[in-house]
Amino acid sequence: MAGKNAKQPPLPIDVFERVLRVANFDGRLLVVIAGTFALMAAMSRNLPPTLAGVLASGWGIAEMHGANKLRNGDPKGLDWMIWSQLGLMITVFFYAGWMMTHFDATEFLNAVPALALENLENQFAEAGLSTVDMPRYFASMSTVVYSLVALLTFIFQGMMARFYHRSRPAVETVIFGPGRR
Q1: 52: part of which helix (H) or strand (E)?
Q2: What is the CA angle 13-16-21, rounded to 5?
Q3: Least CB-packed of 42, 53, 64, 89 within 10 Å?
């Protein structure tokens, strides 16, 4: 019998509690990480990463606000949580796009400590590559890295938004009671 050992779906209260745990953890983690990067970027007077970090922190706060609304019986908290994921995704897309189009590899290489730059030049020489081409290689690598960041953000934030959206029936059952919405 195929259904004999089938796992039962989680109870609505279990889904509700999981949504609250995930939102609080994800929101707090986002505020700490994005806030730290925003502060570091602000100290180096780099405006685009500062703005991206502040916006990302704001989306983390929005996610925690949604969790608090849910905890207080307001199902619109799920909307806050879903929009926080989509807003974070858009923020990362804009930041990644900015970095791909405005990355200055020569400036980056000038900021590398002399010993590390010498090591890089030696590695380029061993690979048979010209050190004159170093900025071009670093610019290409920057594009690859920020494209990957955008792709992973699309996947992760998209799955988080989907998780919150698919939890709506169970959350509404806990808030309104069975059979009511």
Answers
A1: helix 47-71
A2: 125
A3: 42
Distance CA 179, CA 169 (A): 10
Q: What is the DSSP letter of 176?
A: H
Which H or E run includes 33?
helix 12-43
Q: How far is CA 136 from the centre of its chain?
A: 28
Please tell me the distance from the alpha carbon of residue 106 to that of residue 135, in angstroms, as a whole number.
Answer: 6
Separation CA 68–CA 57 (nearest Å) = 17
pTM metric for this prediction: 0.87
Integer Cα distance of 7 and 77 in angstroms: 29
Q: Tokens 């509404």 map to which residue?
A: 172
For residue 4, report the phi and psi dihedrals to the nearest 5 degrees: -65, -40
pLDDT tens for each residue of 11-29:
999 999 999 999 999 999 9
The span from the CA of 158 to the CA of 121, in Å, is: 41
Of 6, 5, 8, 10, give the one whose Cα is nearest residue 171.
Answer: 10
